[in-house]
Structures are given as C-alpha cells and as structure tokens.
Design goal:
The complex is a heterodimer of chains A (about 300) and B (about 375).
Chain A: H1 2-7, H2 10-51, E1 54-55, E2 60-61, H3 67-73, H4 76-109, H5 112-121, H6 130-135, H7 137-141, H8 146-153, H9 168-190, H10 197-205, H11 209-238, H12 241-246, H13 254-263, H14 267-292
Helix pairs in contact in A: 2-14, 3-14, 4-9, 4-11, 9-11, 11-14, 13-14
Chain B: E1 17-26, E2 29-39, E3 44-48, H1 55-63, E4 70-75, E5 78-79, E6 90-93, H2 105-115, H3 120-133, H4 149-161, E7 167-171, H5 179-196, E8 199-204, H6 207-213, E9 216-221, E10 224-230, H7 231-236, H8 241-246, E11 250-261, E12 264-269, E13 272-277, E14 288-294, E15 299-300, E16 309-319, E17 324-331, E18 334-340, E19 353-357, E20 364-366
Parallel strand pairs in B: 3-8, 3-9, 6-7, 7-8
Antiparallel strand pairs in B: 1-2, 1-4, 4-5, 9-10, 11-12, 11-14, 12-13, 14-20, 15-19, 16-17, 16-19, 17-18
The chains are: A mainly alpha (about 300), B alpha+beta (about 375).
Chain lengths: ~300, ~375
C-alpha cells in the first residue's frame, strides 16, 4: 500500500483507508475519557475506598470503618484544616489583588503582538524547581535574613520581625510567590471575555476605575477569575511543600496533614484527609459552575 | 491653507465644534495635519474619506479619545483640550457593536445615567424613552447577543442620546451592516437628527451614506481636510480633483493647458483641445491640470460640439441595473465613461469610433 501511495495510485487505497481513519477517530475521542478515568476518576474513587479501610501496623486491610473520619473531625486536625482554608483564602485574595491588575494591564495596554510574550515571562520562574524556589525564601525571610537586615539597616525597625517565617505569614508569602502566575494566566484568559471597546465606552460614559471593575470587568471575567482563584485555593490547601518548609507549629495545611499521616503510617487517615479535601474542591467547583457557568472560560466571546 | 480649506462663517449660533490647526502624529506617522473646521449647532455633518485618511482620528480627537499633537478643539466655544470624553458635551456611537455583553438593553442604555447617580426610576423612564426613540420598545430585557447588528447600533444610539449631550459622534456606525439595512438606517439617522435637533458628526467611507444623511460633508484624505461644503455642492461642483474622484462617478482626465483667454481655458486632453471655465484658479500655459466631469453628464455619439467633445473608440458597456456605463477609450490608458439610464438604440461595436460630448460648463478644471 505504501508503494502504491508513493506512485500516486490512490483509488485502490482510498476505500481501505477511510474506515481505518474512522476507527482511529473513535479511539482519539475515547482517549481523553480513558485518561480521565485512569488518572482522575479511579484514584479519586480509590481515595474514598481506602479512607474507610481498617488500619494495620504498616498498611491497611479491606473493611468499613469511619474511624479515620472520626480521627480527623475530633482532633486538632479539623481546626488546622479550617485554618488552612482561611489562610489559603487570604493567599487567594493577595494573589488576586497583586495579579489581576497585571492581567488587566496586559490585555489593555500591551500591544496585541507582544501580549503572549509578556505572559511567557511569568512562566520563567517555573523553570526553577519549586523546592529550590521555596527554600530560597528562608534566607530572605528568616530572623537575620535579607528582609530583616534591610529594614534594620534602613532604621525602620529595631527588632527583627520573626513572624515572617515558620508562621502562617510565611506560608502565605510562599503561596503568593508560587501561585501568583496562575492568577495572571487565568486573569489574562478571563480578560478575553472583556472586549477592548468596553474601556472606551466607559471613558465616554464616565465610569471610573472602581465602577469599571465592579460593573463591567468583574461580571464578564468572573468565570476565569473564579477558576484561577479556585486553583490557588486548592493548591494552598493541598501543597504540603510550602507549610513543610515555611510553616511551623499550627501553620500546616490539608496536604501536610495528609503527608504527616502517611509518615505516621496511618494510610486510611491520609486518604480520609484527601477525600475531604477533594470533596471541598468539588463542592467549590460546583458552586462556581452554578454561579458563573465555568464552560464560558473556554468560549469567552459568544 | 487655501481659501477652500478655511471655514465659511455662515452660522449665526456659536459653532458646536470648532477645530483649529489640529494635528495628530503617531511617531513619524502623521494621521492629521493642520485641520481647521467649524461645525454649526444642529448640523448633520459627515466626515467622508478613504480608510486610513484620518477622519476617525479627527472624530476621536473631538470626542476626547485622542490628545492632539497640536491644535485646539472648541466645543460650543470652549477649549476642551484638557477634558476626558465624559466631561465633554459629546457622546460616541462606536463602530463595533460596543455594548456591554452582560447587561440587558435597558441596562446598557441606562448605565451612563447610573454613573451620573440618577435615581432608579428616572433612569428607567429616560432609558425607556430613548429606546422608544430608536424604535426598540419591547427589546428592553434582551441581551445584546440576542439582537441583530442594526438593533445593536440602535441601542448604542439610545445609550449615547440618553446622556443629553448636544453633540453626537458616530464612528462608521453603519459599516458592519448589510447594504439594505444601511440604507434604511441612514434615513432613520437623518430623521432622528432632525427630530432631536442636536449636532451629529458622522464618519463614513461610503459616499452614498454621506449624501443621504449629510447637511454638510467634509472630505478627509491623507490627514488633510480636502474640501467641505453642502452635500449637493460637493457632489455637483467639486473644487478639488480628489473630491471629484471620490464623490460621484466622475471622469478624471489629465491634460496640459494650451491657452488661457480670460475666463476660458483650453486644455489638451489626449491630443484634442477642450474648453473649460477657469473658476478663478491660477493657471498658466503648459501647466499640467486635471479635468473632471460626472459620467451622467457625458453623452455618447452624435456630432459633438467642437471644444466640448472628444473622439475615442468604444470599448465596452457595464450594466449596473438602473444605469449602464459605456466605456470609451480616448487614448491608450485614458478612458471616459458615459452613464445613461435608458438603453441605447444601437450599441457600437468594440473598437468603433465614437464621440463623447457634454454641455459647456459641465467640465470642471482642477489645479492640485
């Protein structure tokens, strides 16, 4: 057949190739489904299944017990989980306040041809391993670190600020540093739903920056903003690395609680924490979808 | 600036818009150069010209969306150079369907009033009245994407007019509409302007649209104000060759002056002399000039009067529905068109010798 194709005698090959292509097309469409089943639905289901298993000395055995959930809900873990939601929320707000204006600026003031290149700049930090980036914060934030010595040398403070590291503040700083680009990306995409002419209409009608943001940009960009915020929130909740390196007593998140449970060889508990985390995320996504119709993110201008 | 470019102060009221020595540069690109223009209150004024000629730049500078490189914009006699768009007595209808996609029609129209902190009931009432004016009663609760292009532009009109500013700027408002709708909307715009009596300044590249709506037309090309005047005058008696080439269907002929005798000028076109009026232009023997004549004033066939006709060879006819254009080659590369409504009893064979003739006074001289 290959030879025939090269010779250009297609008519014989054509009827054969068509069903092949059709078959392939079917498979191509099945591929994402298979992927999602294998890497998303299955692990999630297993998380819930394992979370009700019985704990053994080094592993777990099939069974049904809610002991892990009891262990979670009636201990300091719940409190830590809730406070990590709270501080994740703060990180989301800080990221939004710092990052979204950058996204608006990119869309509004940077020439179209340069926009994607500028966005690319924000990907550069990801070229460095996250562990290294987060670790590098320690000498910056610690007691005699860069921030404190600078402030002391400038005479702005007498005593070093110790709240910057091994605290919730430290974790939030780390989260903002790690996740800021995500709000810029999603904000950039979200702003595609805000046509450029809108700004001129606002100029003509006299809508100031606040009105413009609340009345026009926010409602139009809401799906994208929500997606970006959820992403940051979930990572703030789940990425154990940040509180592990920058946090301290009480400054943990759900991810670290689960990791610690694994370290203590309590796999059902780790699974239960993960299950609770995922349920929280799914609930959030559901609420967001009902409010903003998240499918709009992928078809902004319609 | 020559005598044609300067304004004719025929208005009694103070000019709604006066532009003095306005220029706009983008780096080395000159979008507007030294434009002087006066637009009377209550006038329907059209800025007509080819794309990229600077007419939109002029409109947007009047509206406050661009800062001029130099020159002044006066609205109702007040210099507004430092004012942002919302502080000016202008409001804008944009070229694209520039509506807020997430608001209903009524909310779109009322948004400007909401910003002006008007009461909820007053907003509703005024917006509804504005919608009625543009014929969109009953569409108040629709979203923009549920409207046709023409309807969206009407919403923009209502949104601009509800602000009660006395100059309405329209930036190619009908450009995106199909031909029939454009015609209808033209008339509607004209009637609307007559009804509300405020000044309309309308940018377009479409001469038919301009002729339909305009009291006066200004031609703008290459950043310059080429010519302005009443729509009828610009069409019938263009001063500049560019105007003749852009408005109407003019034959543009190039020639050299053979003889100047008082008000009569004899010009050689394709080797034959034709006579035209001097129109007070400074001309000298041997100078290269341009002549124009509207194609509907040119007759084909018959013995032409000497100096008011040119011989040529028939090349082809183009049927345009109402009119038919007969194209005759005077010389290689020089065509002349005669546009007639009626069918000719006998159409010449291609290549047959014919004579193109006109009435004395129809041929116009231009010195550019």
């Amino acid at each position: 057949m290959t030879v025939r194709n090269i010779e250009g005698v297609a008519p014989v090959a054509a009827p054969l190739r068509e069903p092949m292509r059709e078959k392939l097309a079917r498979w191509v469409f099945a591929l994402p489904l298979a992927f999602m089943l294998l890497f998303f639905a299955l692990p999630m289901a297993l998380t819930f299944v394992f979370s009700v298993f019985e704990r053994t000395m080094f592993w777990m055995e099939p069974g049904f017990t809610l002991f892990s959930y009891e262990n979670f809900f009636f201990s300091a873990r719940l409190e830590n989980f809730l406070s990590s939601m709270y501080y994740s929320g703060i990180a989301v707000i800080v990221c939004f306040v710092l990052g979204f204006p950058i996204a608006v600026f990119l869309r509004k003031s940077v020439p179209q041809v340069a926009q994607h290149r500028v966005v690319l700049l924000f990907i550069l930090p990801f070229m460095v391993s996250e562990i290294i980036r987060v670790f590098a914060l320690r000498p910056v934030l610690q007691r005699n670190g860069l921030v404190n010595t600078t402030l002391q040398n400038l005479g702005l403070i007498d005593e070093p600020i110790t709240a910057l590291l091994y605290t919730h503040t430290g974790v939030i700083i780390g989260e903002v540093m790690s996740f800021l680009p995500f709000i810029i990306f999603s904000g950039f995409l979200a702003m595609e739903a805000v046509p450029k002419y809108i700004f001129e209409v606002c100029d003509d009608l006299g809508a100031g920056p606040v009105r413009r943001f609340l009345d026009v940009i926010l409602p139009l960009a809401a799906p994208g903003i929500f997606a970006g915020c959820t992403f940051i929130f979930v990572n703030g909740l789940g990425v154990a690395l940040l509180p592990n390196i920058l946090g301290g007593a009480g400054a943990v998140n759900a991810g670290l609680i689960a990791t610690q449970a694994i370290a203590a060889l309590d796999f059902p508990l780790a699974m239960a924490v993960s299950a609770i985390m995922m349920t929280t995320l799914m609930a959030l996504l559901y609420i967001g979808h009902r409010l903003f119709d998240l499918t709009k993110i992928l078809s902004p201008i319609n | 600036m020559n005598a044609l470019g300067t304004l004719k102060m025929t208005e009694t009221k103070p000019a709604a818009v006066e532009v003095r020595g306005l220029a706009k540069h983008y780096g080395s690109v000159v979008a507007l150069k030294d434009v002087n223009l006066s637009i009377a209150a209550g006038e329907y004024f059209v800025l007509l010209g080819p794309s990229g000629g600077g007419k939109t730049t002029l409109l947007r500078t009047i509206g406050g969306f661009h800062r001029p490189t130099h020159g002044q914009v006066l609205l109702n006699g007040v210099d507004v150079g430092h004012l942002p768009p919302d502080k000016r007595t202008t409001s804008m209808v944009f070229q694209s369907y520039a509506l807020f996609p997430h608001m209903t029609v009524l909310q779109n129209v009322g948004y400007g009033l909401k910003i002006a902190r008007m009461g909820r009931d007053a907003i509703r009432e005024k917006s509804a009245a504005a919608l009625e004016m543009v014929g969109l009663t009953g569409f108040a609760d629709r979203k923009p994407h549920e409207l046709s292009g023409g309807q969206q532009q009407r919403v923009q009109l209502a949104r601009a007019m509800v602000l009660n500013r006395d100059i309405l700027l329209l930036d190619e408002p009908l450009a995106a509409l199909d031909a029939q709708l454009r015609k209808d909307m033209c008339l509607e715009l004209k009637h609307l302007q007559e009804k509300v009596g405020i000044t309309f300044i309308h940018v377009t590249h479409n001469q038919e649209e301009a002729m339909t709506v305009a009291d006066r037309i200004a031609l703008i090309a290459d950043g310059e104000l080429v010519e302005h005047g009443r729509a009828r005058d610009v069409y019938r008696a263009p001063h500049r060759a560019f105007t003749a080439s852009f408005v109407g269907e003019n034959n543009i002929l190039r020639g050299t002056i053979r003889e100047v005798d008082g008000d009569d000028v004899t010009v050689d076109v394709a080797g034959h002399p034709v006579r035209t009026g001097r129109r007070g232009l400074a001309v000298a023997r041997g100078a290269a000039v341009t002549l124009s004549i509207r194609s509907e004033l040119v007759r084909m066939g018959g013995p032409g009067e000497a100096l008011h006709s040119l011989p040529g060879r028939y090349s082809e006819s183009v049927y345009l529905g109402l009119t038919t254009s007969h194209i005759v080659a005077l010389a290689p590369g020089t065509d002349m068109v005669s546009r007639v409504v009626e069918d000719l009893p006998q159409v010449p064979e291609p290549g047959a010798p014919v004579v193109m003739s006109w009435s004395p006074g129809d041929l116009r001289l231009h010195v550019d």
